Amino acid sequence: MALEGTLKDFSLADIFQLIGLQRKTGVLTLRSPEDVVTISFLEGKVVGADSLNKRLEDRLGQVLLKTAVVSQTELEAALRTQMETLERLGHILLRHSVISRDDLRRSLEKQILQIIFRVFRWQNGDYHFSQETSVDYDAELVAPMSAESILMEGARMLDEWPIIEKRIPHRGIVFVPTPAARKVEVAPEEDLAEELELDLETVEAAAPSGAGRLRITSLEGDILALVDGVNSVDDIVRRSAHGEFETCKALYALLTRSLLRQATRDEISRAAQSAIPDIPTSADGAPRIPWLLLALVPVLAFSLLIARRNPLNPILGPSQKLIPSAATAVSWARMFGLWEIVQGRALLAGTFPDTLAELVHERYVDQRLLSDPWKRPYRFVVRDQMVLLAGSGWDGAPEPNLMLSVRLGNSADDREPGQGVSLVTP
Question: Domain of 181?
Answer without folding.
Answer: 169-274
